[in-house]
Write a structure and sequence with these properties.
heterodimer, A: mainly alpha, elongated, B: 332 residues, seven-stranded antiparallel sheet, 8 helices, 19 strands
Chain lengths: 168, 332
């Protein structure tokens, strides 16, 4: 990759472009902003160590998302993340906003429905809601068929609506 | 239509991702029955809410990059020999040069923005303040502007005829006279802030060309070419730069625009941006060591004189401060 100073400039540009989306992506899995930033940080350190073998090009985007996902799964394993206590925390947070206005309440109840979606469905649905990821890109990142992405998004939305008690 | 399919189409439509045949399919279904339209509207409302799921995530890209940059610069983390990064000294230290360059650039850009078209340049208005000075400006349409120190504001020729366009370099607080027929637009750097009847503050940093918008009343559309725009409402603050695009900030809008009431409040602000703000307020030029380029500042300098501000800075960053006339130097 030639001149080391240029390499670092390219690396910084890549980091600045991709880091926010990757942190949000990691957050979908970890539900903790600090952990999400940490996983993304590790992935970039890894990339830097491997920079001789990588092309800073479009393919790297998918590689980055996949690496972040693996990092998240490892972190969940490592910390034996207790989903039960997490859900409780979430409920507590919802209740504490009981006096909030209608919009806030609506937001919380939709969030609660999203959080109850099956893991894959939830992941795909939220990835699609994040800026800059088309269905084709989601399919590439998760290494699944584009048709599956379409179906899961449809199913997710349907479940959310039913969960809110307005379906039918 | 299959329900799952409909949800999928609605989702895609919200991003403008529908193919032509899919769009036709959706349209046909919408026109088939009025309740379909209602259902569709309701689905779009869910999608809006779901889109906010990750709004609570603050990636802190600047701080994270500072950490990463430090980590990869140490030899231990860089096994390849070529990896030893040698940054030229004062790589970003010659701030004065960078600032001068950006002013020249802005002057050129500003010139074309103001004088393009048929309007006569004679009618264009130019306002400027020195560091430490503020200026109250009453515009022809009844809108009011308070221009902070070290800033310029240009009203293009023909201001108010069909629209109200202003070009800002620096910082200003706007109280916009309501007029739905003539949009009120402030351009700063790459961004445009379009007021929808309102009060707001725009701050542009010559350190990084970033622009911060804080809305204290009403609603403002904050946009830049090639970026997804944001609509800010009362109390909200967002920052834009070309690297990160638009990011919402957690500081309260009245604090972000605190200079209007002589309050200087920083919350996890980039140090160069904070320094520029201090320069505007106290009418001094601040020189600081290179490592502070990545520094962050959280402080409340409400009503404090410069001497006390400097005392805080020297403690927070373990630097020495000296002042000669209008020049403050922070050194290690």
């Amino acid at each position: 990759m030639g001149n080391p100073a240029n390499t670092k400039t390219a690396f910084e540009a890549l980091f600045r472009k991709m880091q926010p989306g990757l942190v949000r992506f990691a957050y979908i899995h970890l539900r903790d902003t600090e952990d999400a930033r940490e996983v993304v940080q590790e992935v970039f350190i890894n990339i830097w160590d491997k920079r001789e073998q990588l092309n800073f090009e479009e393919e790297l985007k998918y590689y980055l998302f996949r690496s972040v996902k693996n990092g998240c799964l490892n972190m969940i394993k490592k910390r034996r993340l207790d989903t039960v206590s997490l859900e409780e925390g979430l409920t507590a947070a919802e209740e504490s906003h009981d006096d909030a206005n209608d919009t806030e309440r609506r937001f919380k109840s939709v969030m609660a429905q999203i959080n109850q979606l099956p893991e894959m469905c939830r992941e795909i649905f939220l990835m699609s809601r994040m800026e800059g990821l088309s269905h084709k890109e989601i399919a590439e990142i998760l290494e699944i068929a584009p048709k599956t992405v379409e179906n899961q998004i449809g199913i997710g939305l349907k479940k959310i609506r039913e969960g809110l008690g307005v379906g039918g | 239509m299959n329900e799952t399919r409909l949800y999928y189409l609605a989702e895609s439509a919200s991003f403008g991702l529908l193919s032509e045949t899919e769009q036709q399919e959706l349209n046909a279904w919408l026109e088939a029955a009025p309740e379909n339209q209602a259902l569709y509207t309701e689905i779009c409302a869910f999608l809006d809410v779901a889109g906010q799921f990750t709004a609570q995530v603050d990636p802190q890209t600047d701080a994270e990059w500072a950490k990463l940059s430090a980590a990869i610069a140490t030899p231990a983390a860089a096994p390849v020999r070529e990896a030893q990064i040698i940054r030229p000294p004062f790589w970003s230290g010659s701030r004065v040069f960078a600032a001068a360059a950006s002013i020249v650039l802005l002057a050129v850009v500003g010139y074309f923005a103001i004088f393009k078209g048929d309007a006569k340049p004679l009618d264009a208005q130019h306002y400027a303040t020195a560091l430490g000075e503020t200026k109250e400006i009453q515009l022809a349409d009844g809108s009011h502007v308070r221009l902070n120190g070290g800033s310029t504001l240009d009203a293009a020729a023909g201001y108010g005829a069909t629209d109200r366009q202003l070009k800002l370099h620096g910082e200003a607080y706007f109280e916009v006279a309501k007029d739905k027929t003539r949009p009120f637009i402030v351009s700063a750097g790459a961004t445009h802030a379009e007021a929808l009847g309102t009060k707001f503050n725009v701050r542009m940093s010559s350190a990084d060309q970033g622009v911060q918008l804080s809305v204290t009343e009403g609603k403002v559309r904050f946009s830049a070419e090639n970026f997804k725009e944001l609509i800010l409402t009362e109390g909200q603050v967002a920052h834009f730069d070309l690297k990160t695009g638009f990011l919402r900030e957690t500081i309260a809008a009245k604090d972000a625009a605190g200079w209007v009431d002589k309050r200087l409040i920083f919350r996890d602000a980039a140090f160069p941006v904070a320094a520029e703000q201090l320069e505007r307020t106290f009418g001094v030029t601040i020189h600081f060591p290179e490592h502070l380029n990545t520094g962050r500042l959280t402080a409340n300098f409400e009503g404090k004189p410069l001497s006390e501000v400097l005392e805080v800075l020297t403690t927070v960053y373990s630097v020495k401060a000296s002042q000669e006339g209008k020049v403050v130097t922070l050194s290690e």
